[in-house]
């Protein structure tokens, strides 16, 4: 009997703890009228070319190479903001390049979200070798603190790299092998934008945003403890990273050479940074409202890609209103069987018909490789790339960034790249997927089907934090 009582009390304590973590985010706020009035589609169009240029990085291999190149050629300052980073092959390559830059005297600032840091970097000798190096400061956004369950769900989902005062990369890729490099095995497809910004307008906005996160009370510096400075495992890891950089110099010398960014980019009229609030509480849906406002422009053919879509009732209502204003909107997302996010797959399984009823034309990507891209185009001028997924977490909980770029050449570049995925996707008609070549959609195997069916009830109650 005593054991039963203890079990009941433990279960009750656990339930209360979960409630303390989830309840602060259960109710989602509307966008304030003041904020809504500031978001106008016309403000995202430029009058003339101002000197900024941009190019799409569509392949995982080039995404890793260009990151290494930016780091290798930086002379004064490097900023890396990463939601997630691992000490796998591509993660070590980035850490080796950052460590070499720091040894050259470059100021290196690394910002990482607290939950992936706890899962993949805390106590890891490679991260400690980087964080403890001279000229490096490594900060963590919202570190995991079990004594503050009400903050556990907040994430910093931003992903960008800034080199000095003229070049940056921003997009949706995390810093590990699934997203970077030409590796065998499991991978995700995603997007980045490379921006050459001699005029400085968009870079100033991005650095200002970074500073607002970096200097917030939600970030702490890690890895500077004297305990780790002469730890044998950390010293060994530092030596391995130095040796890895020498291998890069020997085997991939082209990665380290300065690039002709003028040739790699096209001129654009304007680049706007769209962001959610950066605090750890529930957030107003700034990015979602902005993106849907841009998509809703009547007469403009619009496309958006998202790995998964999980809408609150307001989000669904908003999407229906947007499709009424502009019926020419196509969404591409993963099919249930192709979705690498089991919670996203389960929620889409439950709510697919509701999404179709909004008026969206829906394409389902079903190639067997999970699609992680977050981008959109509107007409022949606007393009958007960044970290924002169309789920309730990205709308109301996470920090998120999207670059909205006005320029016909970049729009064509992104549309051509998006259309290659869309050609492999299935158009959904009457609940069935059809493709011009007559191909059939993959079916869920028994393991996937069981997982989706088991998670579907949880999706009903916990979809706002998935």
From TrEMBL:
GO terms for molecular function: phosphatidyltransferase activity. Residues 152-174 form the PLD phosphodiesterase domain. InterPro entries: PLD-like_dom, PLipase_D/transphosphatidylase. Pfam families: PLDc_2 (PF13091). It comes from the Bacteria. GO terms for biological process: cardiolipin biosynthetic process. PROSITE patterns: PLD, PROKAR_LIPOPROTEIN. PANTHER family: CARDIOLIPIN SYNTHASE, CARDIOLIPIN SYNTHASE C. This is Phospholipase D family protein. It comes from Candidatus Acetatifactor stercoripullorum.
